[in-house]
Amino acid sequence: MGPVARAVIAQLPFQDVLVAQVSYRVRGWNGDRADPAHDTLHALDALAELTGPVPTVLLGHSMGGRAALRAAGHPLVTGVVALAPWWPRGEPVEQAAGRHIVALHGERDHVTSPMETADCVRRVREAGATRAGLAFIANGDHGMLRRHGLWHRTAAGLVAHVLEPGAVPEPLPVGGYGVGEVPVL
After folding, report:
1. Alpha-carbon distance 130 to 110, whole Å?
2. For helices 2-11 and 148-163, what crossing angle results, to 10°?
3. Cα–chain-centroid distance for residue 59?
4. Phi and psi dihedrals of 20, rounded to 5?
5. 163: nearest Cα among 9, 14, 3
6. Max intra-chain CA distance, the chain
7. How far apart are CA 119 and CA 93, in angstroms?
8. Fewer CB in 10 Å around end: N or C, the chain?
9. Separation of CA 50 from chain center
10. CA gyration radius for the chain?
11. Which residues pair with 59 in a beta bridge?
12. What does the alpha-carbon distance between residue 6 and residue 51 come to, in Å, rounded to a whole number?
């Protein structure tokens, strides 16, 4: 995620933004314990203690996208940008109500399921997300190596747009991510 974080920093038009990375205590999801989600919530609590109430966008890849979605209900969270997220069927979505949730998925992803992501986005929308959507990266893969520049620019643009929709143009094609269509970039 280092290159993606650097792209976010480079593309944000604001001066007063903090970009940080969550460190997970364990490797992997570890079943019902879901420690990465708890680690994300703990990091958000630490951020709130440090800065007070600030709008926050969670950006995560694969399992990090799952942890971000699970933590979306935290009071600081404005939105989630998930890259090739691992959102298996039945993933809870109620916590996404009132949030912006957008996923980018590679068309050639054979690690996580674009169809499960699409189903989760549909359920997020039904659960009352402010905006929810999915865009595909044509010829994109799970590791975000194919077309990496597009992954980075689009993720950074989405983070900036969710933080300041009036100041930053919508980075997705016509209609943005609130439309029922699935744009292919």
Report:
1. 30
2. 50
3. 4
4. -135, 160
5. 14
6. 42
7. 11
8. N
9. 23
10. 15
11. 81
12. 22
Look at the chain and count its residues: 185
Virtual CA dihedral for 104, 110, 111, 116, nearest 10 degrees?
A: 60
Return the SS3 of 150: helix
Provide the token pair at 80: 């989630």
User: pLDDT in tens for each of the 185 residues of the chain?
Assistant: 888 888 888 877 766 777 888 889 988 999 889 999 999 999 999 999 999 999 999 999 999 999 999 999 999 999 999 999 999 999 999 999 999 999 999 989 999 999 999 999 999 999 999 989 899 988 889 999 888 889 998 999 899 889 888 777 777 765 555 434 456 65
Say if pTM beats, i.e. exceeds, 0.85: yes
> Token pair for residue 24?
């997970």
Tell me if residue 37 falls in helix, strand or coil: helix
Q: In this structure, which amino acid lies at residue 103? A: A
